[in-house]
Amino acid sequence: MNSTADIVVVGGGVIGTSVAYFAAAAGASVRVLEKERIAAGATGHGPGFFNAFGGDFSPGPHLALGLESIRLIREHMAELEQFQEAPGWFNDRPGLAPAYSAESLAHHQQMYAASGAQLEAAGAGAEWLDADQIREHEPLLGPSVLGGYLFPSVIQVDGWKLAQMYMAAAEKRGARLETAEVTGLVWEGERASGVRLADGSEVSAGHVVIAMGSWTPAASVWLGFPLPMCNLKGQLHVLRVPGDVVLKHHVIERIALMQYPDGDFLLAATPDPAPGGGLRPTDAYIRPLAERHALPEDTQLLLDTGISRFPFLEAAEVVEDRAGGRPMSVDLLPMIGTTPALSNVHIASGHGRKGIHLSAATGRLVADTVLHGRTDLAVDPAAYSPMRFMPPRL
Ligand SMILES: Cc1cc2nc3c(=O)[nH]c(=O)nc-3n(C[C@H](O)[C@H](O)[C@H](O)COP(=O)(O)OP(=O)(O)OC[C@H]3O[C@@H](n4cnc5c(N)ncnc54)[C@H](O)[C@@H]3O)c2cc1C
Q1: Which atom of ligand 1 is nearest to the CA of 43?
Q2: Fewest CB within a 10 Å sphere: which of 209, 213, 247, 364?
């Protein structure tokens, strides 16, 4: 394979395909090189809630990217929906962020005090409900709920569905998806002239985008620059309950529950006993990349916690068990931008628990910076730059 493109994207997850979608829409020729298949990594697992509240976002630049992503997905949903294989891939319902202990209730209220103004300024604010009010809104919640926030509208879309839609829309504009493993960069002076593939051939490119998810540290070696990340494991169950049970909200907390239009439920994601959904992942769920299967003890813990919060799940049948690793940068902010060595190699990785949600703003930001050297998104691109990991001068 010896060929060329304006932009070569390495990785066909939700981040790489979003870059392809926005860059192709802006007129660039794009090739996505994926070593396995589209959504083979973390993207194949995540339920993709576009909710900007909770322990996953810190106020400031992180939340700003999340809010821009919500705006963009609403703007692009109608176009992307043309590529869905069945109706209802975008599942828009009101969202609840409940608390089940005094500690998590205090934590929720602290989080809202810190980020509420930013959420409300973007039209994504919430209303606080006490225990009786929240159960009245969502009768399927169990007696252990103490209160929570109500969000009028939260879009949910599975990562693999969104990646598929981004790619199909990009292909319509001439982008190509190819199965190929990238093993390194080819460079001339300060710029990369392309990428090298496992079969020894090269693909030349004006720009290279590294969207390799949890495999990104390999590119750290190619670039001679630290891209510090860990692999935060998560897992989920698809559940089926007898009868016509209807969950009216996406219930989003460390343990989230939602219902697909076909009636099945999804219980996700990290069976993590951390109080209230704090920002730090617990060490226990940082796992080797190769561990991509559900562990029986985690399955049981997730199910037990789910039943304790939603008693109706006692009757549920587990129809699917999935597990995967999320690419989490060590400071929890995504890495988007270039590194010192090669000015036309762009990193787009490290999105942790929120890569599906953040894909829209990330794809647009990368396309804008690669093609125009600037963006009109309401974010400060410097905040996400991998240059923050620049070693101190000796
Ligand atoms: C259980 C679970 C629940 C989640 N819930 C949510 C949620 O509710 N909301 C949300 O926003 N996010 C959620 N996430 C996180 C989200 O799935 C990830 O942040 C996101 O998918 C990361 O996308 P990515 O494209 O960066 O990485 P990936 O999807 O891992 O894609 C990277 C791709 O690069 C390819 N690749 C790697 N190396 C090479 C190479 N050398 N050559 C060619 N190809 C290569 C891989 O095969 C892979 O397909 C969840 C994740 C899990 C596991």
Answers
A1: 21
A2: 247
